[in-house]
Design a protein that fits this description.
The chain is α+β, with helices and mostly antiparallel strands. The chain contains 13 helices and 23 strands. Helix content is 31%, strand content 25%. α1 runs parallel beside α4, α1 packs parallel to α7 and α8 runs parallel beside α12. Bound molecules: uridine-diphosphate-N-acetylglucosamine.
């Protein structure tokens, strides 16, 4: 999808079933390379990051077949240790193959990973912790060469990095003794990885808390259903709020979205929570005061740009503080082109609510930034054109059809 044309001003209405989580399925696919066995995964999202990860796995010798949201994998043959650099360069999560291949083979050769450009995204936490566990790490000409299976022991992450926690959990599957990760990330996607690994026979405790412990155990294939995508759900909710719409989302876990829901309620939306569903009814919006991103259970950085787009017409001023990534305001110039009043200074952004937005021609910069541009375009008067809309394909399956189901006037060009 290269270009989107959106005619704004239509309140979104209707019901959507939330897709499986991008950030849960990617580490689980890496785990399938770590463990010899056959796996059946359901609720897999149909998104480009999954396609690229599957192509990487295929290159390593893991076989798979896919029917709709169901994926069957067979990794009984030992995989290669060097993933394709061109593919790995396309997504940040390719770094998780490091832990997976170390566990399986005791060696890995990983090109430095890609993904959205969100300021500096170093790997120091991953690599220092692996070195503390006895893995030899060398970086040469844009590639990481790692040797040796981890020995047991405790490592402390100075920041609860999601990727570092997942990489250590994966590497620990092949460790000589129990590995304890202190200062671990607590995101629901870590719990989903732990549930998958437990189904594979892993002895694992504490996932979802800041201390995760993995002990050696025989591992095998498993059946698993991928967690619903809280970031896709947050995007639809923000789109519903921005357009004054009324949406029902099904097949999700409302508890995982609490910081997003609380803000939408403070902004004047009505949210009804069910066991696995949510209903949002939006009216005139007011500023909720401030939005501060942070590691789970804080407000998710991935929902910052969509929430900003939702609040562009909210009465009053909203102060955003981005604490997770530098450079996560790349969507702001496009929102300004649509008439938004936003000032930024370092990690801060101040949004002054305007009466109306106008359609504009803008260029998408990253996955969630592109979602913010779509939300603003849906709320604006007139037509917008969003180029480089392919960023959306990384994380949103069947995006245009799903938007149309909610009544949006949207056309896509370029696949
Ligand atoms: C994951 C998610 C991403 C989400 C992010 C934060 C996936 C595939 N991606 O990314 O959507 O926005 O969590 O919730 O799950 N850091 C270091 N050194 C490191 C590692 C990280 O300084 O070795 C820093 C990063 O630069 C960033 C912060 O820690 O500022 C958070 O990064 P991390 O939690 O690792 O995010 P990812 O796993 O890359």
């Amino acid at each position: 999808m290269e270009r989107l044309h959106i005619t704004g001003g239509v309140p979104l209405r209707g019901t959507l079933a939330v897709q499986g989580s991008k950030n849960a399925v990617l580490p689980i696919l890496a785990a399938a390379a770590a463990i010899p066995g056959r796996f059946a995964l359901s609720n897999c999202p149909s998104i480009r990051d999954v396609d690229v990860t599957l192509a990487l796995l295929k290159g390593l010798g893991v076989r798979w077949t896919r029917r709709g949201g169901c994926l069957e994998l067979d990794s009984r043959e030992a995989p290669g240790s060097a993933p394709d650099p061109a593919l790995a360069g396309q997504l940040r999560a390719s770094v998780l193959l490091l832990g997976a291949l170390l566990a399986r083979l005791g060696r890995a050769e990983i090109p430095l990973p890609g993904g959205c450009v969100l300021g500096a995204r170093p790997l120091d936490l991953h690599l220092r912790a692996l070195e503390e566990l006895g893995v030899r790490v060398q970086c040469e000409a844009g590639r990481l060469f790692c040797r040796g299976r981890p020995r047991g022991g405790s490592v402390l992450l100075r920041y609860p990095s999601v990727g570092a926690t997942e990489n250590l959990m994966l590497a620990a599957l092949g460790a000589a003794g129990p590995v304890r990760v202190l200062g671990a990330a607590r995101e629901p996607e870590i719990r989903d990885l732990a549930d998958f690994l437990t189904a594979c026979g892993a002895r694992l405790r504490g996932a979802g808390s800041s201390c995760v412990e993995i002990s050696p155990a025989p591992l095998h294939g498993a059946v698993h259903r991928i967690l619903p995508d809280r970031m896709e759900a947050a995007t639809w909710l923000c789109a519903g709020a921005a357009t004054g719409g009324c949406l029902t989302l099904t097949g999700l876990r409302p508890g995982h979205l609490e910081p997003v829901l609380a803000l939408l309620e403070q902004a004047g939306c009505r949210v009804q929570r069910g066991a696995n569903a949510l209903r949002l009814t939006a009216g005139p919006l007011r500023s909720p005061g401030s939005v501060v991103t942070g590691p789970y259970p804080g407000f998710p950085t991935d929902a910052q740009a969509p929430m900003m787009a939702a609040l562009l017409r909210a009465e009053g001023c909203t102060l955003f503080r981005e604490t997770v990534f530098e450079g996560r305001y790349r969507h702001v110039p496009a929102l300004r082109a649509m008439g938004a009043q936003i000032e930024t200074a370092g990690s801060l952004a101040r949004v002054r609510g305007v009466k109306a937005l106008r359609g504009a021609a803008v260029r998408a910069t990253d996955l969630r930034g592109a979602a913010a541009m779509v939300i603003a375009a849906l709320a604006a008067r007139g037509e917008s054109a969003i180029t480089e809309a392919r960023h959306l394909d990384r994380g949103y399956g069947d995006f245009v059809r799903r938007l149309r189901c909610l009544g949006a006037l949207v056309e896509a060009e370029g696949g």
